[in-house]
Amino acid sequence: MPALAVNVDHVATLRQARQGSEPDPVTAAHLAEMAGARAIIVHLREDRRHIQDRDVALLRQLVKTRLHLEMAATSEMGRLARGIAPDLVCLVPEKRQELTTEGGLACQGRETELSDYIAPLREAGIAISLFIDPDPAQVEAAAAIGTDYIEIHTGAYSDAPTPAKRQQEFARVTQAISQGQDLGLKVNLGHGLNYENVWAFAKTPGVSEYSIGHSIMSRAIMVGMREAVAEMARIVGGFAD
């Protein structure tokens, strides 16, 4: 059964808007786990625009499922990750001016660099994921780097302006899933997935985890965190293995 991983970054975004103490992403993570989340995701950005170091440290102590840390492949983040020891590190591209991660990590041509970067993380017992576009060359490069997982960037699928374009992007994603499996990788999906567009993957085998944040947090404002997570967990829990 595929798992639901819930990203709580946007809880921290709301907190940081007032530079206060609420709402607390740590509390949100606890409620998400109670409602069926099988992992909690946070993105510790270099500019600390939402999630703070304090949040990650507390989450490491309190998360009872799995803690996934999204981060850029920098020396600072590598040191932090080794000290915190999340269950999984997902390497993502990062631009300070972007509102959210805009695309996949460029792996092709950086195989040696990224392989060297993840080596000490793996030695620390941390599983590795690479957030990549559904591009055959990037999937091939990710396998050569030696990652455990790839997370396929579903943004182009989620934001497709027409049904024909969405079907085209869906095909790209499903092809990347199959390619990743053939190369011995575990495959996750994430970015822009919501309560409607995620249904297209209901009969798509080979997805280990669906990483969803913004849609769940948006719904939680209306119906509460536990109900919003539980609803998505029920959806994902009925999908093909």
Question: Which key phrases capture this entry?
Answer:
241 residues, alpha/beta, eight-stranded parallel beta barrel
Draw up the topology in text.
Blueprint: E1 3-7, H1 9-18, H2 25-34, E2 39-43, H3 53-62, E3 67-71, H4 75-84, E4 88-91, H5 111-123, E5 127-132, H6 136-145, E6 149-153, H7 155-158, H8 163-182, E7 186-190, E8 207-212, H9 214-223, H10 225-237
Parallel strand pairs: 1-2, 1-8, 2-3, 3-4, 4-5, 5-6, 6-7, 7-8
Helix pairs in contact: 2-3, 2-10, 5-6, 6-8, 9-10
Brief write-up:
The chain is of the alpha/beta class and 241 residues long.
Structural write-up:
There is one protein chain. The protein has 241 residues and is an alpha/beta fold. It has ten helices and eight strands. It has helices at 9-18, 25-34, 53-62, 75-84, 111-123, 136-145, 155-158, 163-182, 214-223, 225-237; strands at 3-7, 39-43, 67-71, 88-91, 127-132, 149-153, 186-190, 207-212. Strands 1-2-3-4-5-6-7-8 form an eight-stranded parallel barrel, surrounded by seven helices. The longest helix has 20 residues, at 163-182. The model has no long low-confidence stretch (mean pLDDT 95).
Can you count the beta strands?
A: 8
How far the N terminus sits from the C terminus, by CA atoms, comes to: 5 Å
Portion in helices: 40-55%
Summed over residues and divided by their number, the pLDDT gives a mean of 95
* Number of helical stretches of at least 4 residues: 10
What is the topology, as strand order, of the major beta sheet? 1-2-3-4-5-6-7-8
Global structural class: alpha/beta
Radius of gyration from the CA trace?
17 Å
Rough shape?
Answer: globular
Unreliable segments of 5+ consecutive residues: none
